[in-house]
Specification:
- The chain is α+β, with helices and mostly antiparallel strands.
- The chain is 38% helix and 26% strand.
- The strands form five sheets. Strands 16-15-12-17-22-19-23-21-20 form a nine-stranded mixed sheet.
- It is globular.
């Protein structure tokens, strides 16, 4: 099993986690509240069960190997290692907590890639703890929620000499921004829905700070304030922070980047005024303020502030758009020699998962399909790179806000897909690549971090392939795409984004539609219904699989379409989990469409149970299913992209 755990960045409310914890002693202290989100960087790992040991291999950000470390899954041995406070201690601490609460065996974890900077306020140690908790949870089906994984990660970390606050393990929630409220020992988590994509730049200041000294000095203000400086600290981490984070939640959910930036700048000013006097040696932070006030980037940013415990560690900016993000990074690297990370907080989507079947044999592409899976056939994309087709499909989904991809494959084919998406090229080959191509290899691995592999043991048709994703999808709607079709939008929004928007508008299962001429209709599923939004959304009344032209003329004419034009299925769907119950019943009763379990009959049943909306998609799809279609796809995309 492959896992990815990101770091986390505190957008607002640093230090309020431990400050709110003091309410268990002094009830007059205000609640703490922090807004955090996951980073694009993190820990990548292969995990598998082990009969009786905890085994860890790791690679740091600079490529330095650690381990393998191993310990017996014995509480005494694990606790002894955790108390040492060394590299392996975090893993041992979490394993200790798991083994004292659950009946489990061991785990073997190969953290084969790390691109998360350490000691920069991005919670690298917490990411390790979440990784261990998640590995046990997934491998042994412990049925923990994300919140449960977060709690065990926290208990594991404080088993070590680390005395982190409750905020750090929020990285368990991935790239979803959350608000965490701290009331003594109780923590409440609220997932936030961001209105529009927000672009940030995270800057490593290449300086130093003493986090332990900052925490020691600030904690002197608690649980009771004895002087003006201590009262200011409590006021900032209490009432001022609650007001600031409340406004920031509103701005984030509205997608108002300008207002978020203004609030960041205000938060930094209030921090300097109220917190700096408590630890001036560390919090005066001249390097941080130089970056925040650097004139050449001011036209590109809406605001910025420090990160984590503050001081000269890390800075964050919210910038105007993607182009500004790239330019700010370029300027800061060139002028000041600092390293930067880009971060995008994506607009909220109720659809988080996509299912892509890729388990077919590729009969019509024989004999090439014996050598290369049809989903891995090469396509030259508009960026000039030769890519396997499935990569373009996954890129489309991830760039449109999909968080998790369920790739349905045959067991024997799984290593082919894993070798591309989950493992870097051999070092001997990597050394032959330019730096630009090495960076691109990292990008492919990042794409791969979104992928889970779902095995279809027998190839029993499209509907059967989709049914194999039932447990992985769970009780939530999902995007369904075809693994041997490419999708190209005719407008700024991708085809996937158009589908997701249609689902939000319709509030029920949606299938994408395009207009096709009569001579093409027998190669497609056809759709008829009643327009709910003229020439845009359709209440579907009937689906017909590959009708002949005569049947189409008699039964499938639609108002608003020119003569000889019909509505055809586009090959993208957003479907509710009720579809799985329908497929399960059909499979149990052996109700096949011909020789296989198809999808069209199940969609018709879903339409009868819940309703089904058709959405016109402004784009094209390209079939790779036979030699003529594949050649046509290559030629069409080549003319469109490179002429």
């Amino acid at each position: 099993m492959k896992l990815f755990v990101p770091g986390r960045i505190c957008l607002f409310g640093e230090h309020s986690d431990w400050a709110g914890g003091y309410r268990r002693i002094n009830a007059d202290i205000e609640l703490g509240r922090a807004l955090i989100t996951g980073t694009n960087q993190g820990l990548y790992a292969d995990v598998k069960p082990h009969p009786d040991k905890l085994i860890i291999k790791a690679v740091t950000e600079d490529g330095e190997p650690h381990g393998p470390y191993e310990l017996p899954m014995d509480p005494k041995a694990l606790l002894e290692e955790a108390l040492k406070g060394e590299f392996f201690s975090y893993a041992a601490g979490v394993a200790y907590q798991i083994v004292t609460h659950y009946q489990v065996q061991g785990v073997e974890i190969d953290n084969y890639r790390t691109d998360l900077p350490v000691k920069k306020g991005l919670s690298s140690s917490a990411a390790v703890c979440v990784l261990i908790a998640r590995a046990f949870n997934r491998l042994y089906n412990l049925k923990m929620t994300i919140r449960g994984e977060m709690e065990y990660a926290y208990m594991g970390e404080i088993t070590t000499p680390s005395r982190c606050g409750r905020m750090d393990q929020g990285c368990a929630y991935g790239n979803r921004p959350i608000a965490m409220t701290y009331d003594g020992d109780r923590v409440d988590v609220q997932e936030l829905k961001v209105g529009k994509d927000l672009y940030l730049v995270i800057v490593d200041l290449n300086a130093s700070k003493d986090t332990m000294e900052i925490l020691r000095k600030l904690n002197q203000s608690y649980p009771f304030a004895d002087n003006k400086i201590q009262k200011s600290v409590q006021n900032y981490l209490g009432q001022i922070n609650l007001e600031m984070t409340g406004k920031a939640i509103e701005a984030l959910e509205a997608g108002d980047a300008k207002r978020v930036g203004k609030l960041m700048t205000q938060a930094q000013a209030e921090f300097d005024k109220n917190m700096q006097p408590a630890c001036p040696g560390q919090l005066t932070a001249p390097v941080l303020h130089k970056i925040l006030e650097y004139a050449p980037i001011q036209p590109l940013v809406f605001g910025g502030k420090g990160v984590g415990s503050q001081g000269d560690g890390t800075a964050q900016f919210i910038v105007k758009d993607e182009a500004a993000q790239k330019e700010v990074i370029r300027i800061l690297k060139k002028d000041l020699g600092v390293s930067c990370l880009d971060l995008v907080i994506r607009a909220a989507r109720s659809i988080r998962k996509a299912v892509i079947p890729a388990a077919g044999f590729g009969t019509r592409l024989f004999p090439a399909s014996c050598a290369v899976k049809k989903e891995l056939f090469p396509i030259v994309d508009k960026d000039g790179r030769a890519k396997p087709a499935i990569m373009m499909i996954i890129e489309d989904a991830v760039q449109s806000g999909i968080e998790e991809i369920g790739l349905i494959v045959q067991e024997a084919d799984r290593p082919l897909f894993e070798s591309f998406f989950c493992h870097p090229p051999l070092v001997s080959n990597l050394n032959k690549l330019s730096q630009k191509d090495r960076d691109y290899a990292d990008y492919i691995l990042e794409l791969g971090s979104h992928i889970s592999f779902i095995i279809q043991k027998e190839q029993e048709g499209f509907g059967h392939a989709v049914y194999c994703a039932k447990e992985w999808v769970g009780d939530e709607p999902f995007l369904l795409m075809l693994g041997d079709h490419l999708y190209r939008s005719n407008e700024d929004r991708s085809c996937v984004s158009q589908m997701l928007d249609a689902y939000e508008q319709a509030g029920q299962s949606v299938l994408g539609m395009i207009e096709v001429p009569e001579q093409s209709i027998e190669r497609h599923g056809a759709v008829i219904g009643e327009w709910t939004v003229k020439n845009k959304l359709l209440s579907v009344t009937k689906l017909v699989e590959k009708p002949c032209p005569n049947y189409a003329r008699e039964n499938l004419r639609m108002d608003g379409l020119a003569d000889g034009q019909y509505l055809a299925v586009f090959g993208q769907y957003v479907l509710t989990p009720a579809l799985f119950d329908i497929l399960e019943a059909r499979i149990a009763e052996n109700k096949r469409d011909g020789a296989e379990f198809g999808l069209t009959s199940a969609l018709n049943a879903l339409r009868q149970e819940e309703g089904l909306t058709g959405a016109i998609i402004h784009g094209n799809h390209f079939d790779l299913d036979d030699p003529v279609s594949y050649l046509k796809t290559l030629n069409t995309l080549s003319r469109a992209d490179h002429h």
